[in-house]
Amino acid sequence: MRVAVVSDTHLPRGARRLPEACLARLRAADLILHGGDVVAGSALDELRALGPPVEAVCGNMDDAELQRTLPVERVVEVGEARIGMLHIPGPAAGREARLAARFPDCHALVYGHTHIPQVERFQHLWILNPGSPTHTMLVLEIRGARIVPELVTLAG
């Protein structure tokens, strides 16, 4: 299964749009994960219109509608893999250990907020931040419980 991961889309914002390279990978995925700060329900609707199912968490910049409808934290099951999701991971110092303790039954944790990409294995857990979708995103290949993450650099 192929999972496309974005976060911090911050849309709509003037004429700003997601790069076509990002949109192509989102359309080609079996599932889209959004790590928060979609910002508006209309932008989430646009992501859902791309085709694959979308799972998202609420971010600190999301409007009142998204704050009511999206969870702050969730676990998504993809095949045999369990992927935890939240937007704000807390302070950088000790982050990986805190997240591993918070999601002990997960194989990966997707977060956003920092706009800084991270693909790091810590103990049992992949710690994953797709960065900002104007520059980077993640694509996960999942077979059973095995996750192979790829950080994709986007032009534009």
What is the fold's blueprint, element by element?
Layout: E1 2-6, H1 20-28, E2 31-34, H2 41-48, E3 54-56, H3 64-69, E4 73-78, E5 81-86, H4 95-102, E6 108-110, E7 118-122, E8 125-129, E9 136-143, E10 146-153
Parallel strand pairs: 1-2, 2-3, 5-6, 6-8
Antiparallel strand pairs: 1-9, 4-5, 7-8, 9-10
By CATH reckoning, the class would read: Alpha Beta
Number of domains: 1
User: Cα-atom Rg, whole angstroms?
Assistant: 14 Å
Report mean pLDDT, rounded to a whole number.
94
**Fourth-level CATH superfamily:** Metallo-dependent phosphatases
Helix content: 10-25%
Known CATH architecture? 4-Layer Sandwich
N-to-C order of helices and strands: EHEHEHEEHEEEEE
Q: Would you give the CATH topology? A: Purple Acid Phosphatase, chain A, domain 2
What structural class do the secondary elements suggest?
Answer: alpha/beta
Point out poorly predicted stretches. none
Provide a count of the helices: 4
The largest beta-sheet arranges its strands as 3-2-1-9-10
E-strand count: 10
Largest sheet data:
5 strands, mixed
How much β-strand is present in the residues?
25-35%
Using the alpha-carbon principal axes, give the shape: globular
Distance between the termini: 27 Å
Protein model, in words:
With 156 residues, this protein is of the alpha/beta class. It has helices spanning 20-28, 41-48, 64-69, 95-102, and strands at 2-6, 31-34, 54-56, 73-78, 81-86, 108-110, 118-122, 125-129, 136-143, 146-153. The strands form two sheets. The chain has a five-stranded mixed beta sheet, covered by helices on one side. Strand 1, helix 1 (20-28) and strand 2 form a beta-alpha-beta unit. The two termini are 27 Å apart.
